[in-house]
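can u pls check wat happens w/ heme C
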Amino acid sequence: MLSCGGSEKKTVKKEPVSTEISVSDMEKGAQLYRSKCMNCHMTTGGGIEKFYPPLANSDYLQKNIEESLKMVKFGSNKPIKVNGVKYNSLMPASGLTDKELVVVFNYILNSWGNDYGQVSLEQVEAVKR
Ligand code: HEC
């Protein structure tokens, strides 16, 4: 007989930490994107080659999330290379709050096929000039 002792073991169920972004946050992110970023980075994040770098499938964004946050937070016009193409135009400071930056970043990090993880409010707040 295998189990007749009646000694029921309580198993603590470990829920995996949720990595999903809520639908409403994705919608908020899309709205912010449309009003603040789409003019340059285009509807589906494709950018305009040599002028506005792509966000969709961007190796730069994937590897330099902190630096990208800094660029969007404070503006940027330093030379960068995205997917092998050089860009050196101006991105003005977004003027978004840290909370809005979290939402719009989580949107661009997880749209158009991107699967680049997430940023937290602490991470955005820690980004200094
Ligand atoms: C006026 C046009 C313009 C707007 C509006 C704009 N960007 Fe940019 N963005 C640029 C340019 C130009 C660069 C490259 C800057 C450089 O060379 O320093 C860039 C670079 C980036 C990068 C890093 C490079 C890459 O392609 O991965 C990210 C991420 C980014 N922008 C996100 C955003 C987000 C998010 C918004 C909206 C909140 C936004 N941008 C609004 C023009 C713009």
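The helical segments are 23-36, 38-41, 59-63, 65-74, 98-109, 121-125.
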